[in-house]
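hiii, so i know i said id send this last week but things got crazy w the move. better late than never?? heres the sequnce for the chain we talked about at the cafe, plus the structure i predicted for it. fair warning i was half asleep when i ran it
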Amino acid sequence: MSLPKAFASPEEYFEECFDFFTKYKFVLDGMNTDILINNTLDNINIPCLEFLDVYDENFTLHDGINDGFVRDFCMGLERLNVSYGEVKERANSVDLEAPVGTKKKYEVATLAKEVEDLCYIYGCDTVIDIGSGLGYLDQIFYEATGHNVLGLECNLSHYARAVDRQMKYHDRSLKNVIYLHHRVTKNSGQEIEQNLRDYFRNHGAVCITGLHSCGDLAVEGMSVFFKMEDARTLIMMPCCYHKMERRGERFVNFPMSGVLKAVFERRDGEELLGVPFMRLAAHPTHNGRSLEQMVFSLMSRAVLQLYAFTNKCKVSRNRRKAVKVKKCDTFEDYITQAATEGFTLVPNLPIYGDMPISDEDEHHQRINNFDLDKLRALWQSYPQLKFKKAAVYILMQNLMQPVVENFLLYDRLLYLKEMGVQNCEHRKFFNEGQSPRCIALIAAKETT
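okay and structure toks below
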């Protein structure tokens, strides 16, 4: 269920969500790296905060602070929150034997079992895996059921590795599990249907699935589901909403339902529901780190951003994980990694006066562009109260995340219903401590 019990209609729910998001705009309307540049933490005014142990593992905003600011925030959340109930632990009959982490094994095995059950209920003998990656889900599903699987992957390297793994370890599945290098779009339906006829001539009803359907991929999967006559069921796990395609300031596939579109236009939604909002919707609330560690990461990166801003530069990452925070016990460790290998400062303007920067000057600047003494002084200039406000900020984001994500997913659910698919719901599959992504969209077409 995605409509909280406090509301009689979707329109009423969306309107109150807009009121709540507007009131706490500072929590969801900016990049976390810019909280010191924008003075975001100044919006948190809680009496006696300096005397509270916010880092205690038993501390919560709900009962840890007796203050109007916090009380109003928690009361608003209570009205907007949706409970998905407890996760039912599932064990797949086939173990995933692959060199992957515990989290990945848990996700693949759990989703494979859910897909297996859905196929049994609705009589599907073929699965289309959108964004099939290295094919882990496909192989464990085939070994458990013997059903056909068509894996579609747009990343050429992932596709090639999936084929290679199949040849080496799963050669028994060569006729039943087919991998194709294909980017799924809303217009992919006919091509996919032709592929099914080519490879699985006598196939029956089809189930469409996807694990970690990044950006628009879950929406594209919904479109294929509508257009394919043989598609009976859909089970997608969306993620990375902030990577959805945009035109100007608006997302192409949000909002989707007629109800939210009307509210969105009345409330100038593009002013509020931008990339930071979508990033928060995809933000994992459980990452195995303590609140103190998260505050350290947040403030360290924010100090680096402020330093760059005051020096009329931007921060450029040299690698995916610019700083390995787990190896940082102090801010000194952080800036040493950041300055030596993690980040580069790039001037906002590529010229000084009328003269462009020479290659030699730019190379010198990229190597010697951090003043560590100034970074240390900037870090030390912030009192402990500022760090405690950063902790409250993180707690507020963690509490808002399920509300923000439900707002987005409920829009998709209403869209499905408007398109005539009444049998649809969002269901929680994974335990939050074991996977950052928990919610799946499940839909089935009515049969005559």
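btw Residues 289-382 form one domain. thought thatd interest u
miss u guys!!
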